[in-house]
Amino acid sequence: MPTPPLRKSLLLSLCVLVLGACGTDDHESAGSADPAPPVEQASETAGADGASLDGGALAFTRPWTGDLDGMAERRLIRVLTVYGPGRFYLDEGRGAGLVAELVKRFEDHVNEELERGHLRVNTMIIPVARNQLVPALLAGRGDIIAAGLTITPERAGEVAFSIPNSKPLDEILVTGPGAPPIERVEDLSGQTVYLRLTSSYAESVRQLNERLSEEGMAPVTIEPMPESLEDDDLIEMVNAGLLPWAIVDEYKLQLWDGVFTDLTPRPDITFREAGRLAWAMRKDSPQLRESVNAFLRENREGTLIGNVLRNRYIRDFDWAANALDRADYARFEALEDLFRRYGERYGIEYLMAAAQGYQESRLDQSVRSHAGAVGIMQLLPSTAADPNVGIPDISTEENNIHAGIKYMDFIRSRYFDDPAISDLDQLLLSLAAYNAGPARVGSLRRAAEAVGYDPNVWFDNVEVLAAREIGRETVQYVTNIYRYYLTYRMVASNALLRHAAREDAGLR
After folding, report:
1. Architecture of the domain whose range is 169-275
2. Rounded to whole angstroms, how far apart are CA atoms 223 and 209?
3. Where exactly are the structural domains of the chain?
4. pLDDT 10s digits, 162-217
5. What are phi and psi of 101, to 5 degrees?
6. CA quadruple 297, 303, 309, 312: dihedral, nearest 10
7. Which CATH architecture has domain 8-166+278-312?
8. CA–CA distance, 99 with 126 (Å, rounded to integer)
9. Which of 152, 154, 207 is closest to 185 using CA atoms?
10. pLDDT digits (tens, 9 = 90+) for 390-430
């Protein structure tokens, strides 16, 4: 008797599988790799909660290319997306968000179209970093990209796009509180914009720079942002005053209307007009593209279902507070020397430590938690007094910061001092352990490795397991600190440039 179709609980657990080798550029073996087993075979190697997934389940991420007929035979369609608020996120082990609902509807569409009955073709959502979407698709580690990709000539040379699933949209400037005045796009000449290098916005700014060069004007400087940050993150950072402005698709501002209230959309300052979003597939999957197009005609933006789903995912997340609020930043300036002194003593980048203090207490020594945590770094007195830290009195700002940074150093040295872990990820994993406990993070790393994630990388790897096992708290904690760190780093860089300019002008 055939094995029953994959259980819903297992399918949801499989949502957290990420492509173990999607960081490589090796595409040549994609077509010749052994095909993964049918979906039902994996159910023999996993428990109902997905916790015991072994090598059989890892076959889902083995390189494979083919069209819809081959996917039907495998009973599996893999959908690549990015992890982020609204689009796709995991809450207590369940996949949620706009992509999760659309993919479930697409699964129903495919099974009805192919008249599969109870022996269904299953979908699996695979979250990856945004700069890995196209490489993973071409390498055969996914079959569809559903992640709000803008159709561009450059991308169309690599992938096959579906019909547009959005209305025509413009890439516009959005400014935040305190941004310098700007009247036209040419006023960005000589200014800096902050964006991901793999985004369509980077292509648009490069085209603008070509025009500015022809007109004898200085180009716009592109400051690369981490690929782990989504447009929603950048919009949030602009709203909070962490960035002066950003370039985004206009519709994304409409999605967050009423949630972020300190944004000024500038539809008069555009970078790409009438762009369209679409799903993407490999060029050699015409059957899949035809099925996707049929589905999107009934479910894309502008249809009743598409509009309902889009509006459903305007959510109230723990948005980053304004790290550059005058009172908050004044506290940072007052405490900067302490963070620098103890950061240098223990080899912790002081701006990251300051960002952690901001997340914990808004740099306010008077804060006390209901659990008894004290001060800027929100340490328990028992933790500070432990011989591994040895600072029993954390009632003063200096002792509190000293104890917090020393405890971070202890966590990093005891649990994450491994040359296989980058310096940044040692800090990120230590931050997660500071919040959730070292033993919990150790367990998450082992679970991550068991299902094909890199246990030495936080973002898009151990982070996803944390979202499944813990929920949003630890994921949001590390993300917010990283955002604040980037903010402080940019401010420090600008301060050095300003100081150099003042010296050049003969000023002190």
Report:
1. 3-Layer(aba) Sandwich (3.40)
2. 14
3. 8-166+278-312, 169-275, 326-501
4. 999 877 888 999 999 888 889 999 999 999 999 988 888 998 999 899 999 999 99
5. -70, -40
6. 170
7. 3-Layer(aba) Sandwich (3.40)
8. 11
9. 207
10. 999 999 999 999 999 999 999 999 999 999 999 999 999 99
